[in-house]
Specification:
The complex is a heterodimer.
Chain A: H1 10-19, H2 24-51, H3 53-56, E1 63-69, E2 78-84, E3 97-104, E4 110-114, E5 125-127, E6 132-134, E7 141-143, E8 148-150, E9 159-160, E10 162-165, E11 168-173, H4 199-204
Antiparallel strand pairs in A: 1-11, 2-3, 3-4, 4-9, 5-6, 6-7, 7-8, 10-11
Chain B: H1 3-15, H2 18-26, E1 28-30, H3 40-59, H4 69-78, H5 83-110, H6 119-142, H7 146-159, H8 166-174, H9 181-213, H10 230-240, E2 242-244, H11 245-248, H12 250-271, H13 296-304, H14 307-331, H15 343-365, H16 374-377, H17 390-401, H18 430-439, H19 453-464, H20 478-482
Antiparallel strand pairs in B: 1-2
Helix pairs in contact in B: 3-5, 3-12, 4-5, 5-6, 5-12, 6-9, 6-14, 7-8, 13-15, 17-19, 18-19
The chains are: A alpha+beta, B mainly alpha.
Chain lengths: ~220, ~500
């Protein structure tokens, strides 16, 4: 190592830089940097679009899912059903399956609740004896109609839009419901009946222009 | 010249590493830093190295596929020789690393190490802490079981609370509309490439700055940090009252490193690997998801926040906390370093430690959650049924069948969401009990629509017997007025049973 020349001193470096400040070499270096910036930008755009892919496809996520014959749902009961998420891949395994609760009123009207607690998404459990949904995580409780009963949730259970076609119950589903991505397209359902139970929900999140709770 | 010396010279002539390594190892440090309090930084780095080695070994087998990951983990636990031990080392290494990093942070905070000229070392340290926590969370996701699945659900629900872009954030985080294969591969990339890569680079910078700026001297009351004089004072201290870092101070680091790795190995061998718990099948809803130890305190906080405060708190508090940590060296960059002269700093550390400990303790038994099986699994203790009328015993049946027990304990067994009801009759009169049961209130759901009138009557009669034998049930004072000649009419016309035995 002793035979090596020492690296240029600080002053010598400054002098060399000064000499090349306006020169062909400096110009070529700057053009080189500019070319790299353009190329970098050109490949960054598709890379970022690739990462944002799941967001760009958002509109395709929801579709109508068949839950089966309506005859399997007994009036006055709430039943746990399972469907395959419409947007899935072959390597999803068990996670492609999504559970939901179908509530059938005495008048054979159907409400389909997501199992995800409106608080932080844990799976709520149905207790038919007390007509309550209870969440095992942070203690959220909902009444049989999905409205908030107690605990930390600020609203009732999420519901999927439903329709009955040729004797089969269909729901519009496809994405995990959160406070931003509602299970339904319209968060304010045109429900006529409003029970006194949902006063608290109404107070927290009323639909604009109505007194309806934002269940859905 | 022996062959090994010639080989060394051949390599050194090309690598030229001897100089920088000698400089780093032998640089003088103040004698006071050769203390057992200064071992946590190097221990964090040793644990990071352990996590990298065990992580690479796990990656030889692990398959980041939502359909297969759980099976692979089972196979590692049961089929692959010592697979369970490697998983256990990595899991326990993670717990130890979070703990040691936090202790290191508390120590450098109390020792004023973040002050001039080590502000940037502290700031990078804050990011290292965040990344360590990020590794802990993403690691829990790779252990793809029910806890991982619903933990992701909680993460998504939190992301969904962000205004305006919440929906997009959820889909970006999950890699699609639901938690599935795309989610696991995203978290795999985060846990294996993105976060560790950044973590290593920042650790390198962090250690580089410690070498360049010197290890913080032991703070003495009255030795005040001034920007104009500190560097000179520190260098004088390191040279006049110092010793070479190696071996003067490093031997303690070496002892502690060996001890901590041994502790991880003992925990791994004794307690075994973490899970995986149940299959990540979202249709199995009989599950009680729980976060890993580093996040138990968050579990408690999220349970106790009032609904109206929750979204603002979740979105604002972390930002404020990180801003406070990053801003600390700019606000308090000079002045006293000694904890004897910084009572607020000492109080803050103690306060946060007490908060953390009590929140973590609460999360181990989750008093806020209904006990899902109490109504069918925990029988009413016999002493609450003795000397009761048939109607009251029927009320005990209603009490169990309507899941009251999931939130209310009797004889110390049952949920703790609501108050224990062993002596509820001493607090509420019959009328108040009826009102409470039917209309709810105070965080209790209304049972009016779930109870028939006979069920309500039976239930309330059972509840009115829940008082100690030595203390009568509460009675409405207005009944004294209605009573004639000082006789109190009974609450209702049905015969009442006695309370519990006196010794209860």
């Amino acid at each position: 190592m002793d035979e090596m020349l020492p690296p240029p001193s600080h002053e010598e470096q400054e002098k060399m830089l000064e000499r090349d400040r306006v020169s062909r070499r400096t110009f070529l270096m700057n053009v080189g940097l500019a070319i790299n910036a353009v190329v970098g930008f050109a490949i960054a755009v598709p890379a970022i679009a690739y990462v944002l892919g799941p967001v760009l496809k958002r509109r395709e996520y929801l579709s109508w899912v068949d839950l089966g014959e309506v005859s399997q749902f007994t009036a006055g009961e709430t039943k746990l059903v399972t469907f395959i998420n419409p947007f899935t891949t072959s390597w999803d395994g068990e996670t492609a399956k999504i559970p939901a609760y179908v509530r059938t009123t005495a008048q054979k009207e159907y409400t389909v609740f997501a199992v995800n607690c409106a608080h932080l998404g844990c799976p709520v459990r149905w207790f038919s004896e007390s007509q309550l949904f209870m969440c095992p995580c942070h203690g959220g409780v909902y009444y049989g109609d999905g409205s908030r009963a107690s605990g930390p949730p600020e609203r009732g259970l999420f519901t999927y839009p439903t329709k009955v076609e040729r004797g089969r119950l269909l729901i519009q589903a496809g994405q995990m419901p959160t406070l931003s991505n509602r299970a339904s397209n319209s968060p304010c359902p045109d429900v006529k009946a409003q029970s006194a139970d949902s006063v608290l929900v109404t107070r927290i999140a009323p639909c604009p222009g109505t007194n309806e709770p934002t269940i859905g | 010249m022996p062959w090994y010396k010639r080989t060394y010279d051949w390599l050194e002539r090309r690598l030229q590493l001897e100089g920088p390594i000698k400089d780093a190892a032998l640089h003088p440090v103040p004698k006071s830093t050769a203390s057992w309090w200064y071992v946590f930084g190097s221990a964090s780095m040793v644990l990071l190295a352990l996590q990298i080695v065990t992580g690479v070994l796990l990656a030889l087998v692990y398959t980041p596929s939502a359909g297969q990951a759980w099976n692979v983990l089972q196979s590692m636990n049961h089929d692959i020789p010592l697979g369970w031990f490697l998983r256990a080392m990595h899991g326990w290494g993670s717990n130890f690393m979070v703990a040691v990093v936090v202790i290191h942070m508390a120590q450098v905070f109390l020792f004023g190490s973040y002050k001039f000229p080590r502000e940037l070392t502290w700031i990078i340290g804050v990011f290292l802490l965040l990344m360590t926590l990020g590794m802990a969370f993403t690691g829990q996701v790779l252990r793809f079981d029910q806890d991982a699945y619903w933990g992701l659900g909680i993460g998504a629900a939190i992301a969904g609370r962000v205004p305006f872009v919440g929906g997009q954030l959820v889909h970006l985080m999950l890699g699609g509309p639901i938690i599935n294969g795309a989610t696991l591969t995203r978290f795999f990339a985060l846990h294996v490439f993105i976060i560790p890569g950044t973590l290593l680079a920042l650790t390198g910078l962090h250690v580089w700055m410690v070498l360049k700026l010197g290890i913080n001297e032991w703070p003495m009351p009255g030795r005040v940090v001034r920007r104009e004089t500190y560097i000179k004072e520190y260098n004088e201290l390191a040279h006049k009252d110092g010793l070479p870092f190696f071996p003067g101070a490093a031997w303690k680091d070496a002892y502690f490193a060996a001890a901590i790795i041994l502790a991880v190995a003992l925990c791994a061998a004794f307690y075994g690997p973490y899970g995986p718990k149940g299959v990540p099948d979202p249709t199995i809803i009989e599950t009680v998801p729980k976060p890993d130890p580093p996040f138990l305190w968050v579990y408690t906080v999220l349970s106790y926040l009032p609904p109206e405060m929750e979204t603002p708190f979740i979105l604002i508090a972390p930002v404020v906390a990180i801003a406070v940590l990053l801003g600390l060296p700019f606000v308090a960059g000079v002045g006293e370093k000694s904890w004897w002269r910084r009572p607020v700093a000492v109080f803050m550390v103690m306060f946060l430690a007490v908060c953390w400990a009590s929140w973590t303790r609460l999360a181990t038994y989750t008093p806020w959650s209904p006990k899902m099986n109490a109504w069918s699994g925990a029988a009413v203790p016999v002493e609450f049924l003795e000397k009761r009328t048939p109607l009251e015993r029927q009320g005990a049946n209603v009490f169990q069948e309507k899941q009251c027990r999931n939130c209310h304990s009797l004889g110390g067994v049952g949920g703790e969401r609501g108050p224990a009801l062993d002596e509820v009759a001493t607090r509420l009169t019959e009328d108040q009990l009826i009102r409470q049961v039917l209309l709810g209130g105070g965080n209790m759901p209304a049972y009016g629509s779930a109870l028939s009138p006979p069920e309500t009557t039976a239930l309330v009669h059972f509840l009115t017997t829940l008082h100690p034998g030595y203390q009568p049930a509460a009675a409405d004072a207005s009944r004294y007025v209605a009573g004639q000649g000082g006789n109190i009419p009974p609450n209702s016309t049905v015969e009442h049973g006695g309370g519990q035995k006196d010794e209860h």
